[in-house]
């Protein structure tokens, strides 16, 4: 007997429009729909909800991959539409959402034209790292990948179809957010994913189209390595302003990134995302002892 293939697990995707296009997915479980992530705003969530309603099936659970604003802003709207559906998040994600230590929610609310909710809708079912969930007749495995793209991150894995809901651990041809200044941590977590059995699955990323995980891991690792390599000379002691990045250096880094990745949309609604990425990764590289870096980050 062979296991089901990815094609046997029906997964639908809603991608909000650019700038800052973000995905929500719903998978058709035997006993209803499982929604993964909730988009940035109630307006986007409302459009996705109309598509969900077209299925004639109720959402019976909501899973959060991580708690960046663009993945939790629509949670309230979905929660009101399906109040019986628990909102799942890992302990680390739930804590990160309560703390918002980087002030990302306030930042998102302050952006022009933002309709990010004033009041957040928090997870109602909090699970420990590595928990296997049984939801709506499906087994969903979870794995934590902390300290990378986001401080806390969960990959949800449906083992029979080998479907991976990876949040922003992987993107598909998009300009990532590096504003947490943890590009080396992210590379290390990608290496962990690459060398795990999960790498043989199909990945459903937070931004961009679904694709085989292995290809997306290579793509994401290459982007991060290349970006670090572009930033590194600008923070060198012997560069024009030493470890401080000058405006000219920043423009050079951004131009080179755009040449290597033309037309790759920003994952965030923050128009200055690339400038912020340079700033964060420059600070990260300047503050780490190169001798202590894992091989993947050198
Ligand atoms: Zn995102």
In percent terms, what proportion of residues is strand?
15-25%
Q: Write down the CATH class.
A: Alpha Beta
SSE class: alpha/beta
Low-confidence stretches: none
Main sheet specs = 6 strands, mixed
Overall description:
By secondary structure, the chain is an alpha/beta fold. It has one domain (9-119, 127-226): Ribonuclease Z/Hydroxyacylglutathione hydrolase-like (Metallo-beta-lactamase, Chain A), CATH 3.60.15. It contains nine helices and twelve strands. The chain has helices at 42-54, 69-72, 75-81, 91-99, 104-110, 183-194, 213-231, 247-260, 273-286, and strands at 11-15, 23-29, 32-36, 59-63, 87-90, 125-127, 132-135, 138-144, 154-158, 163-167, 202-205, 211-212. The strands form two sheets. It has a six-stranded mixed beta sheet with strand order 1-2-3-4-5-6. A six-stranded mixed beta sheet has the order 7-8-9-10-11-12. The radius of gyration is 19 Å and the shape is globular. The model has no long low-confidence stretch (mean pLDDT 95). The structure holds zinc ion (ZN). Zinc ion binds at residues 22, 68, 70-71, 168, 206-207, 267.
